[in-house]
User: Which sequence fits this backbone?
């Protein structure tokens, strides 16, 4: 154990334990939320009961990885909806930032503003360092009963949308029998 602060590594505040976040597990009820999207519409978990839901947390609007991930989901949105799956993006950015991000990249799914970080924390997806806070790049698939069916804590933005679609197909065989949209 270090006894003197000069012995601490310069990046000690960037380690994963700095978040102090709760961890949820597959099979547990997904934590409830009530958040505004980019159009100031309120979304809450209970309104998605009876449907599959993908909640993807991301760090910051209009940054390279977040842009790649969001555009990947947008590209697969028709397929997800054809499978009966709803998609919500969540970050700690403001509603106005979400609106600019969605407009710039023609994102047609809700981006929820978790400005306090409370929802991200309830999913074990908040990184906090002093006054700075942002959502970690995590995704949760919530089943129609409101339980966490799958989670992704190590996400490659380039491949993630495909990975989520494949996981959904594995979770519910009836989705594989859906005709492609369009």
Assistant:
């Amino acid at each position: 154990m270090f006894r003197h602060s000069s012995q601490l590594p310069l990046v000690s505040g960037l380690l994963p334990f700095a978040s102090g976040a709760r961890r949820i597990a597959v099979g547990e009820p997904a934590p409830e939320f009530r958040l505004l999207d980019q159009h100031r519409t309120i979304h809450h978990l209970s309104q998605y009961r009876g449907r599959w839901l993908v909640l993807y947390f991301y760090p910051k609007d209009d940054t390279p990885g977040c842009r790649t991930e969001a555009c990947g989901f947008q590209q697969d949105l028709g397929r997800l909806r054809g499978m009966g799956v709803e998609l919500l993006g969540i970050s700690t950015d403001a509603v106005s930032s979400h609106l600019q991000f969605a407009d710039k990249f023609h994102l047609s799914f809700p981006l929820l503003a978790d400005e306090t970080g409370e929802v991200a924390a309830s999913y074990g997806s908040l990184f906090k360092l002093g006054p700075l806070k942002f959502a970690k790049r995590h995704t949760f698939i919530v089943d129609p009963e409101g339980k966490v069916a799958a989670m992704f804590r190590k996400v490659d933005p380039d491949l993630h949308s495909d990975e989520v679609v494949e996981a959904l197909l594995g979770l519910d065989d009836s989705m594989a029998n859906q005709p492609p949209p369009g």
